[in-house]
Amino acid sequence: DFAAAAGQAGVARIIYLGGLGSNEDRLSAHLASRREVERVLSSGSAKVTTLRAAMIIGAGSASFEILRYLTERLPVLITPRWVRTEVQPIAVDNVLHYLVQCLATPETIGRVLEIGGPEITTYQELIQIVATERGLRRRLIIPVPFLTPRLSALWIHLVTPIGANMARPLAEGLRNRVVIHDDVAAKLMPQPLLGVRDAIRAALDAEARFDVESSWTAAGPLPGDPDWAGGDSFSDARSGIINAPPDRVFDVLLGLGGRRGWFAYDRLWRLRGWMDRLAGGPGTRRGRRHPRELMWGEALDFWRVAEIERPRRLTLRAEMRVPGDAVLDFEVQPVDGAPTQARLTQTARFRPRGLAGLLYWYAVVPFHKPVFDGLFAGIAAAARSETT
Fold first, then answer.
1. What is the pLDDT of residues 10-32, one digit of tens each?
2. Which residues in 309-348 are b (16+ Cβ under 10 Å) and which e?
């Protein structure tokens, strides 16, 4: 496991960010699993410093994104009783300070330290603060006793971009009171702590500037490309010369999805995302982290970036609910003797899983020509328009 491998590699120190919550309370499965990680890491030869935090307020944080989307989209919230649970949130900048400063503070070695912001509040109060900072009316919140974590997770799945599999452990964890019991971390590694309102304002401002360096959407499995040569697989490719330099064509590819959309037949893309959301998939609500930048492993609507090699290749792997493996691949090649031209090859590949996969492929084939022709033409037009 990780602890053993760290010891074999000679790692002297591990710093782990865990979750707050008293062991005397009946911890949720989510928080209990984080305690178990602490125990396993400590079983190795490397010294472990554990920082335990409650909700981290920052652009891209899953718990903060749930809070933001629920507040923005629902003027009336029927919620579980956990909205009245006390919590001590901390700004992401303060968390980063603690994580880095641990390395320069020998007194933190081998210790469990609790970190939190300067205020204890409730989720109910946090919702109202987000509403105020977004210029929205005060939200009507109606706590009811019969909403279970499972129902809460399904509701979060439908209303926000957070999937049910991630939402459920987060919702279960919200029942635990998460506040710090000592200020040892603050004394060992002093820093100005942002209050709740300032932390929320900073997170919203960072989102507005597209200054989100990482996001919860980047978390998730990213298996290697399927072995397309083995078993039955299908492909739908189109290729052509675009009167634009390769760099410019690739810049257009980096801007696909999100608010920009997918050029032609964008309504069909959105409808596919809506259907996927109802089926339990991510849909298109995850959007994208930045309007013009992509990184390996990050989410893009219902895709994930599986390969990126500027300015030659971009490969997107589908994370929508489909009975098989789907990939959308773009390859940009220079044209010999023509520096202002590029050849773009756009290929959709699908390896079906059983009979359901075969039926799915043949059901969507009629839509491929208009949708993928439109996508190719839109990329070409956008690349040309920026060079004229």
1. 898 999 999 887 765 677 777 88
2. eebebbbbbbbbebbbbbbbbbbbbeeeeeeebbbbebbb
pLDDT of residue 216: 52
Best CA proximity match to 56, nearest among 115, 130, 124, 139: 115
Task: Give Cα 182 to chain centroid, integer Å.
Answer: 32
CB 318 within 8 A of CB 328: yes
Listed in order, strand segments (DSSP E) in 73-168 are: 76-79, 86-87, 90-91, 112-115, 121-122, 140-143
Count Cβ atoms within 10 A of the Cβ of residue 57 and give its class: 0-12 exposed, 13-18 middle, 19 or more buried.
Answer: buried
- The pTM score is 0.62
- The pLDDT assigned to 229 comes to 41
Helix (H, G, I), strand (E, B) or coil at 288: coil
Q: Which of 199, 42, 182 is nearest to 109 (CA)?
A: 42
For 221, phi then psi, to 5°, come to: -70, 145
Residue located via tokens 């608010």: 259
Q: How far apart are CA 385 and CA 380, in angstroms?
A: 9
Q: Tokens 């899983």, residue?
A: 353
* Helix pair angle (266-278, 354-385), 10° resolution: 140
The pLDDT assigned to 231 comes to 45
Mean pLDDT by 10 residues, the chain (388 residues): 86 91 70 87 90 88 80 80 86 94 94 94 91 88 73 71 65 77 94 94 77 59 48 81 95 91 87 86 82 88 90 91 89 92 94 78 89 94 80
Give the tokens for residue 217.
């959407």
Q: Which of 98, 86, 124, 135 is nearest to 16 (CA)?
A: 98
* DSSP conformation class of 264: T
